[in-house]
Design goal:
Elements: H1 6-9, H2 29-38, H3 51-58, E1 82-86, H4 91-103, E2 109-113, H5 115-119, E3 141-143, H6 150-165, E4 190-191, E5 195-196, H7 201-212, H8 224-240, H9 253-280
Parallel strand pairs: 1-2, 2-3
Antiparallel strand pairs: 4-5
């Protein structure tokens, strides 16, 4: 646990006599409160992927996480105030993560450990991986790496301590849990064919109504430059004597995608035919 420097407590607008500085100290309530929280943070004990192995190594004797007062990893979210999201966050695992975050008492903090938890990592835009845990719960510190080393995690924890040191009880933006009334819980995502954020239900409902009426509702459209490239490829195929796929004059994105898919399929079939001919020889 970090030591409190008593000499710094005398640096106030109220001077303390020299003969009393060994027994009396003057400081602010925010400073004492922040020092007590930063030096006794209890992480939530759970891991998701390979980053969890590095987190376990950080808690071992070689790196001695207990120097920071964080060695007490609790198995219950109701006894934790730091969530270390260590590893790949899948859409199926996102639901219990948000539920555990809501069960943690305030004040509570979140540390995104690794590239997957921070932004999806190598699985970004994948079919079953969330592109960053910060899209669903607030993140205080990001630790880059794939996976980050124990030293990197320690640096992230020190950065979190510095952030806590700068908080003021008089500023509700720094300590929102002291605001008026209880804090709003994070909506638990709905896991269906895809992950659905309840906060976007109004947008999803509006798009569904537009789709039912046959109106455009934000479909992906290719820029004019991409359509021009397709037209160039079409002309090049005509020069070679091969039949180019039909593309609507309006340049709709569906026709362009179908044309590109047909071109790629034809090239694949031609390459496969050449390979078979070489194998026969």
């Amino acid at each position: 646990m970090s030591q409190l420097n008593l000499q710094q407590l005398h640096d106030t607008e109220f001077p303390v006599p020299a003969d009393m500085q060994g027994n009396v100290a003057i400081t602010s309530l925010s400073r004492i409160y922040n020092w007590s929280r930063r030096s006794s943070m209890w992480p939530l004990l759970f891991g998701l992927a390979c980053c969890a192995i590095e987190m376990i190594a950080t808690a071992a004797s070689r790196y001695d996480l207990s120097r920071f007062g964080m060695e007490v990893m609790r198995a219950s979210p109701r006894q934790s105030d730091l969530m270390i999201v260590s590893g790949t966050v899948t859409k199926k695992m996102l639901v219990p993560i948000v539920r555990l975050y809501n069960q943690m008492p305030e004040p509570k903090y979140v540390l995104a450990m690794g590239a997957c938890a921070s932004g999806g990592g190598p699985f970004k835009e994948g079919y079953n991986v969330v592109s960053g845990i910060d899209q669903y719960i607030p993140v205080d510190v990001y630790v880059p790496g794939c996976p980050p080393t124990p030293q990197a995690l320690l640096n992230g924890l020190i950065a979190l301590q510095k952030k806590i040191d700068g908080q003021l009880l008089t500023n509700l933006d720094d300590v929102p849990w002291y605001g008026v009334g209880p804090s709003d819980a994070v909506p638990i995502p709905v896991l269906g064919p895809d992950i659905i954020d309840p906060r976007q239900m109004e947008l999803i409902r509006r798009q569904a109504e537009l789709a039912a009426q046959g109106q455009p509702f934000g479909m992906r459209e290719l820029p004019p430059a991409a359509i021009t490239d397709v037209e160039k490829a079409k002309a090049k195929m005509k020069v070679k004597g091969s039949a180019a796929p039909a593309i609507a004059a309006s340049g709709a994105s569906e026709d362009v995608d179908a044309a590109l898919a047909e071109m790629r399929n034809r090239k694949r079939q031609e390459a496969l035919a050449r390979k078979r001919a070489m194998m026969k020889q």
